[in-house]
Amino acid sequence: MDSSWVNTSLDLNINPFKHVNETQAQESKEFEGYSTRVEQKVQVKKEAGVSALVEELNRVNIENQKLTEVLGVVCEKYLTLQKHLADLTSKNSEKELMTTPVISMKRKAESEDYSNVINAINGGNTESSSSDEDSSKRPQENLKTKISRAYFPTNASDTSLVVRDGYQWRKYGQKVTRDNPSPRAYFKCSFAPSCPVKKKVIKITPVLMIIAYD
DNA sequence: CGCATTTGACCTGCGC
DNA sequence: GCGCAGGTCAAATGCG
């Protein structure tokens, strides 16, 4: 959205009396012979109404100017954000191009998943956007397993993948994967013996972990 | 001693 | 069908 795309002016008619047409002028001439007393009464009423209308129109006009200014500021901020997003996206694509030859073409789904994570971060989403897309494309898979993700800040010096999220988890495995130098940890819910919930903790940057709940 | 964590082995699924 | 990589299991180990 650009400010040039939208006509921010409300195009308020601040002087409606300009647009009186010729027929109305003729009609007024025809009534010139009427008594002056009636005319004066009507004139007094008209003047009071006109002054009120002009006052109202002035108020609306000022409001219109203020809104135009606010809209201009909003458009400017939007353009700045859009530029920032474009920069981040281009940086990300460069990074992907550099890493693509290293990452095996196998486990394609996993690699795509990881890039979606980065995209989600760039887009400012805390929830992966891919999950929404997948839900429309592959509804049957989502019926089987519902995976949600959360991003968790961590210290760069903290090598443990233990996340205190208020639930009881038992770590049952840890694995180093090719697409990420830092290991990923696998946890099972230990809140109840029959609890089927699992979570996977992956450190995607030194200060950020992604937790995938299954 | 009991529980949680670690870690190497095994299983499973996907791509070629 | 084979090889590879992610996911899981279970014995070993550590800690309170």
Automatic annotation (TrEMBL):
Keywords: DNA-binding, Nucleus, Transcription, Transcription regulation. GO terms for cellular component: nucleus. Gene3D superfamilies: WRKY domain (2.20.25.80). One of its GO terms (molecular function) is sequence-specific DNA binding. Residues 158-201 form the WRKY domain. InterPro entries: WRKY_dom, WRKY_dom_sf, WRKY_plant. The keyword Amino-acid biosynthesis does not apply. Coiled coil: none annotated. Residues 134-144 have a biased composition (Basic and acidic residues). Pfam families: WRKY. SUPFAM superfamilies: WRKY DNA-binding domain. Signal peptide: none annotated. The keyword Glycosyltransferase does not apply. SMART domains: WRKY. Residues 119-147 are annotated as: Disordered. It is found in: Nucleus. Its main location: nucleus. This is WRKY domain-containing protein. It comes from Populus deltoides (Eastern poplar).
